[in-house]
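[Amino acid chain]
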Amino acid sequence: MNIAIIGATGNVGSRLVNEALARGHHVTAIARHASRLAARPGLDTLDIDLADGAKLAGALRGKDAAISSVRFATSPLAAVLGPVRQAGLRRLLVVGGAGSLEVAPGAALVDTPTFPAEYKPEALAGRDWLNALRTEKDLDWTFLSPSALFVPGERTGTFRLGGDTLLTAADGRSWISMEDFAIAMLDEVEKPAHTGRRFTVGY
């Protein structure tokens, strides 16, 4: 497949690039400084600022799918959706956040008293993205939320999938490595099972 990854130089984006290339996909890595990524077979890098919608649309044209791995608080959804539409691209997958996941019926993690204040703006913006995507009728979108703790780690290939509820491991922790998150995301790219909705991944 021909996959575009927006925000390809970040912690998560770079792992998505690695996973996609390892599976034999052709990857167009898009970021402000994407050319800093090491050259590899099957990888094209494009230095594009998200504010340049026309240039981003051109980069997305002809792709099978795009994955957005950008910060919600500093990147309006329109900056991604506009170019996606201009490019005639139907499939958009989004690296989501855990804050909008429910810890109890109707109660989101971001609204709990113990949610860290420094992460709240990003979590609230992520929830806004998700709510806006849920109104989209002409786009095959998917929003993948990690667990509460989202860290660099091992690529184990062993994890669980869920829906709108925060997953918790047997030891009481809610976590997922970025490497295993990338597996779940590329699995979804290859075999769509959550089109038009959010799902989550955790141990």
